[in-house]
Amino acid sequence: MKKRIALLLAAAMLTGILSGCAQPPAAQTDPAQQTDPPSSAEPNQTDSIYAPYQGTELVFIRHSGYEADWMTEKAEEFYQISGIRVTVEQIAYSELKNKILLDISSASGAYDMIATTEYWLSEFNEGGWLTDMYPLVHNSDLTAAAFELEDIGQSTLDANTINGQLLAMPWKFNGQLLAYRTDLIDTPPATWEEYLELAEQFTTSDMVGVSLALSPNSIMDVYLNLLYQAGGTFLSENSTVCNLDSPQAKEALEFLLELTAYTSGGATNNQWPESAAVFGQGAAAMYPTISSQIGNLVDPEVSAVSDSVGYAELPGGVGCLSTWGVAITANCKQPEAAWLFIQYMLSPENTQELVVGTAGADIPVRSSLLLSDSFIQAYPHYAVMNAITQAEGHTWTYPKTTATTAIMEALAVHLQNAILGSETVEQALSSAKTEIEALLNG
Questions:
Q1: For residue 148, which of 73, 172, 223, 303 sits 20 to 30 Å off, Cα-Cα?
Q2: Cα separation values, 117 from 14, 55, 128, 148, Å
Q3: Secondary structure in 3-state letters for the chain
């Protein structure tokens, strides 16, 4: 089972899907028993694994939000048991990448650990700025058997590995799936034709058939999912040729243009949270979404349709996944101490706590949690995620290159031009191909 799950989880993804982090609704009752945090006021000096590193001070940067607050709590707990002080610096997501790059590329950088998606790893490691974690992970003097490394999907580790070096330890993944109104739709669409028929049927003066996130930060996610559903590919295996001149690329963009006839006005300005709000307000029948937005759909405080949300695979049966993880910088003077903190924070028990605290919005990379009957019962979207992960080939990947961000920006510009009518489908795809190949081979 784990091997089959591992086949799906390796995916480098887009900034749009990565930035769609929603504040979770109030924590639900834990489907499994939780462990109370340590209550001692002073660090525990008895655990020999921590003894050589007591008094170490580390700085960890990540974007602000619920997870950052939770990780700050874990850092305080960790100090109580280890004597290793970890300061969690929170920053706006929009500023995170640039601030990290400026810091880790300097020999005097201040950050010991960073939160990152695998989408950024090639850029973050361009100058050898990250630490290979495999020697730490496989050191039995540092890594306890209770960490259960084998419980983590191998391909999530592979997604964070470059040239044989594990550059980040993943803790969650985001994925695309279809949310739909169960009070309106009995059977979700399984094909593009059914998708269009339902979208047209439910587009009225009061609502739209589908709420789409077509901003420059998310349109690539939507289009590339369609491209892979059509059987196409984005780049050649060696990442030197862009395949947007294929029949599948044209078919996918033409279908997206058809679908936009049944979405809300201004969809080209909507990121994932805005398109979630359209659905949550009862103004859309369907919403191709990412898992981190589910909290906005099921929280009755923000969603008028919280009791009538169903989930399904996207028509075509292809989903995309992307991990978030913690990396240790090359500037870290005590990488062993940093790994001890990461190991503690991402233990099976603490990962379970995070899942519950986000009401299932955080999809764990640990197979034992993803496949837990109690979690599937508490968080119905887990069953869909399980169905996707159990089907070989139900994924698509992004290139790991130092130009990936610029490549996605170029693609987004021309996709929007096609939707807004300033370029034909053929012109948009041709222009995007030319610009992307220049970035790949420049």
A1: 73
A2: 9, 30, 17, 22
A3: CHHHHHHHHCCCCCHHHHHCCCCCCCCCCCCCCCCCCCCCCCCCCCCCCCHHHCCCEEEEEEECCHHHHHHHHHHHHHHHHHCCEEEEEEECHHHHHHHHHHHHCCCCCCCCEEEEEHHHHHHHCCCCCECCCHHHHCCCCCCCHHHCHHHECHHHHHHCEECCEECCEEEEEEEEEEEEECCCCCCCCCCHHHHHHHHHHCCCCCCEEECCCCCCCCHHHHHHHHHHHCCCCCECCCCCCECCCCHHHHHHHHHHHHHHHHCCCCHHHCCHHHHHHHHHCCCEEEEEEEHHHHHHHHCCCCCCCCCCEEEECCCCCCCCEEEEEEEEECCCCCHHHHHHHHHHHCCHHHHHHHHHHCCCCCEECEHHHHCCHHHHHHCCHHHHHHHHHCCCCCCCCCCCCCCHHHHHHHHHHHHHHHHHCCCCHHHHHHHHHHHHHHHHHC
Q: Which residue has the tokens 């109580």?
A: 80
Q: Give the least confident one: 16-20, 47-51, 55-59, 301-305.
A: 16-20
Residue-level length of the chain: 442
- What distance in Å separates the CA atoms of residue 298 and residue 25, rounded to the nearest whole number? 8
Query: Is residue 37 scored above 50 in pLDDT?
Result: no
Amino acid 397: pLDDT:
60
In whole angstroms, what is the distance from residue 31 CA to residue 265 CA? 41
Distance CA 259, CA 63 (A): 33
**pTM of the full structure:** 0.75
Dihedral class, residue 102 (left if φ above 0, else alpha if ψ from -120 to 50, else beta): alpha
HSE value, Cβ hemisphere, 13 Å, CA-based, for 230: 22
> Which tens digit of pLDDT belongs to each residue from 252-287?
999 999 999 999 999 999 999 999 999 999 999 999
Average confidence score pLDDT of the chain: 86
Cα angle vertex 182, ends 177, 185, to 5°? 90
pLDDT tens track for 383-400 = 777 666 555 555 566 677
